[in-house]
Amino acid sequence: MRSLYLKAFGGLAVLFLIMASLLFVAAGTLHYWQGWLFLAIYFLASLAITLYLAKKYAHGALYPAALEDEARLWQWSFWAVAEVDRGVNIWSLHAVRLPPNERDAALRNEALGVLAAPFAVLDAAVSKNPYLLGPEFTVADLNVAAVLSRAVDMDLSAWPHLKNWLVRCLERPAARRALALKTKSDQETPAETTRRIARINRL
User: Is 62 helix (H, G, I), strand (E, B) or coil?
Assistant: First the structure.
């Protein structure tokens, strides 16, 4: 049942990328509110299903049994989106994804500066335990590592515990398969689409 949740969550992530590409590449813009509304409704319902599977079939394993740990799971998931996601994406665009002659070193360095404080928080959180909620990998690690997955190419030597935790998370078989799909998607995305994403999102 543990693999059932991983397959469901991984499939949801891949489906999101495919559907977003179909909607926004065809529209030629991310300023397409009908597309965002469709994705929001569709994926909120889908996310509810994956969380149900995790809680029902991986309860006490991937999904924590204790109410306090469930609260920490949600806390870390929202924290990653609010504190880390934008900085990691800015760094990734200007270090890896944009054509070399279009990368902005100032923006890249600014992103690293913004990320220093939340990275220190995460580094401290995994300094005494291998994973966020304790000795076992849970949905909290899955969600936060997914947001930080592009940071694996950064110089994380200043945050050794974070680096080791991220490598542990991304070396899991399911994560390696998901990263392979992400890499393939990045390679197949036209440069103009990447430029448009950066420009519209002010990255």
Answer: coil
Q: Chain centroid to CA 182: how far?
A: 11
Strands (E), the chain: none
pLDDT digits (tens, 9 = 90+) for 120-135: 999 999 999 999 999 9
CA distance 85 to 11: 21
Total count of residues recorded for the chain: 203
How far does the chain reach from its first CA to its final CA, in angstroms?
39
Quick one: CA dihedral 69, 75, 78, 82, positive or negative?
negative
Interatomic CA distance for residues 60 and 79, integer angstroms: 22
Q: In angstroms, rounded to a whole number, what is the distance separating the alpha carbons of residues 70 and 63? A: 7
What's the chain's Rg over C-alpha atoms?
17
Q: Are 132 and 105 in contact (CB under 8 A)?
A: no
Position with higher pLDDT, 171 vs 96: 171
**Global pTM value:** 0.69
